[in-house]
Amino acid sequence: MNFVKRRWKGTRNVLALVLMLGIIFSGHSFVQAADNEYTDNVIPVMTGETTPSGHAFSSSKLWDAFYPWKAFDHNPNTGWYATVLPGALEYEFPTPKKIEKYSITYWNENTAPANWTFDGWDGTEWVQLDKQVNIRNWYTIPSKKQEFSFSNDNSYIKYRLNITASVFAQGNASIIAELEMFEKNNSGTDPGTDPGTDPDPEPTGDNALVVIKMISGLEKEFDLTASEVKDFIDWYNGRADGRGKETFMFDNDFNKGPFTSRKDYVAFSKIQSFEVMEYTK
């Protein structure tokens, strides 16, 4: 049997979801978003102060549970504790990066930062790139995350979040669950669409081939029903908002081989992009 594939592509964004794309399978509507202006978080999933790469450090730390690298482990349930303010959380890249956006995920409303600067190190001194004052609306943000963008003409090897006050009126400490950093994309094209391909198709088939490209370069393929595609996208969107499990399980019948069953687990933080390609007869 011959099939015609229509392609729909989505790009992972651990931060904001701003460009809404729709796909329809047999009467089901799914929504996926892609932010094509900025890259994904360029800080890797840190498992220690210098692993797997770079260097996470701070002006203060409180026992193992709140070490600075915990704010870069892509886990909103852990974090860094600034026991004294002003307090600075820093990350040094292996090579210079041109950061133009960052996001902060708070631990709780009282210890969320209120005043801070975001700075780059030029080798001699800190250069202020962004300044925020009296940010106290954290409790209104369901995802516990806020993003801040700015113009930056230079690449720096090291950046810091320098907190001078927390939300709590008499607070002298702050807890940051996650600090993420982003560069701008250079292509000028929408990474969510292919040239010459319909960017907003209206699929009519019952199944779709989901192709997931991992950060490592590996590609995984899954032949899914419409409801399974919906489950995957719901999970993906939830993780982008900091909800749900880190991994998604596929009960994979595609390319099963000689096995009676094949279950594949995909980690959200390892996904670079994915495509949903609908089959039509």
Quick tags:
mainly beta; 5-stranded antiparallel sheet; 4-stranded antiparallel sheet; 1 helix; disordered N terminus
What does this protein structure show overall?
This protein is mainly beta. 5% of the residues lie in helices and 44% in strands. The protein contains one helix and 17 strands. It has one helix spanning 226-240, and strands spanning 4-11, 19-25, 28-34, 55-58, 80-82, 87-97, 99-106, 113-121, 126-132, 145-149, 156-166, 174-183, 207-214, 219-225, 247-251, 263-267, 271-280. It has a five-stranded antiparallel beta sheet, with no helix packed on it. Strands 1-17-13-14 form a four-stranded antiparallel beta sheet. Strand 2 and strand 3 (28-34) form a beta hairpin. The longest helix has 15 residues, at 226-240. It is globular. It starts with a strand and ends with a strand. Residues 1-34 and 187-204 have low confidence and may be disordered.
